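quick one, 498 residues, struct below
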Amino acid sequence: MAPSNDGTEENFRTIYEKAKRQAKENARKRGITLRPAITNTNDPGSIPSHLAQSSLDPGRVAETVDSPTTQIKEEFEKALCFSEITSEGPRPDTAVVPLETANRFAGLKSAKKRKRPSDDSVNASPELSSTGENVTESSSIKSEGKQPHPKRPFAPVKKPAKVQKSTISHAELVNTRTTKYTSEWYERINMKQKYNRSDLQNLKFITSLIRDCESAAQAGDELRPLFSRLRQKLHQLEFYDFLSDILIKTSKLLEAGGLPSIFDNIGGVNYPWDLRADSEALHQKWLAGVIDPHLLRGIDTKEVRGTSGKPVKTRSLQKDYPRKVSCNYIGQGKLQNGQWWPLQICAMRDGAHGEIEAGIHGQPSKGAYSIVLSGGGYADIDDGDTLKYCGTSGVGGKPTAGTEHLKNAFILENPVRVLRSYALAAKNKYRPSKGLRYDGLYSVVDFEILDKDTAMHRFSLRRCQGQDPIRFKDEEQRPTDEELRENRKIRALLGYLT
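---
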């Protein structure tokens, strides 16, 4: 084919420059490097089919390879077809991508906004060439190795995930809590509540005392003065009138660096046994959500007048009080040696003794759970670690229910909780100055019948080993000064002189 002067060369150059600029712009947007797809125009097998069917017949290019027009055609053909090149060289799995397919998504800002043609639209609707013949899209050109995804022509097929079927032989709940000591009430505290910072500092002062004890123990200094201050502060904590759930949680007294440092000896300090008992009792109380410092919490006091016209105080446990603890259990439960209450009904509220007035509490099938030493003319003998405790008088030689409970405790060898009342004789050195005090577990080791007509039994009890001493003297005695002070306030409100 001879060259002509009818402007064909200029037309080809114009088309070529336009195609070249468009190809480079599309490559820049896609972040790829381009290379010519045709490496040898003399080899008809290396020419893509979409060029062989177009008006620019590569076969005629080979016949006039030396002509200027043929050179322009060759460059134009090279500009029409490219493949991707990486920094390491051409991708081995990348197919030759014609310019029409490469420009399909040109000009779009984001892949999320692309409206991708379906596989059917690509294969079933071929474009027409300038001669009116069908032109096959590049989806018909398959690369070696991975195949294009039908909905993602620009990505390889994603391998399906391997699903391994296994049989569960053992399942165990994993504890994800960050603290050892916690409760449902403690976890639900709303931390967005407001509080007074000075109140928080008063609570956290005991933490400072704990750190001082740890430092003194490491340095070998005297610890007794620090223990006295810590004991006094610990007894005051229970009766702060500004106590709230947000303050307790913010102070972190229930966590490892707070009260548990005392009763668990976390900081390496050998605290006195009474400090360990009092700190654990307060910890359990707060952890259960009992932060009301009032001694008569959950108890209604009424003043009634009888036939004599004199006012009489009556007390009853509130039916809707949520913190009541059952007394029907064997052993100590969550009580602490030396725990104190101003009234017997308060001991019933906290699960120590299940009777408001009676001295023996139990069930027929389990025996006695607890007894109260309170005098009352019985032939009781209190020697501290050993007791002789009388049952109640029966009728017609038949033992009472309380006496039967103690006999069953002896047969079943169940320990019994023992509480001492201030109603004991004043000469009894184990008598608390006010209220009632829990003094530990005792075993019923024997009994004797004092009177057959009334079925009066007297039981011998011995204090179980491994418990702290009875808290009746020195710094360890209960009730504490703070407890007595709060009790005096309540009695004054009720009209009592002391």
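Residues 83 and 96 are 5 Å apart (CA to CA).
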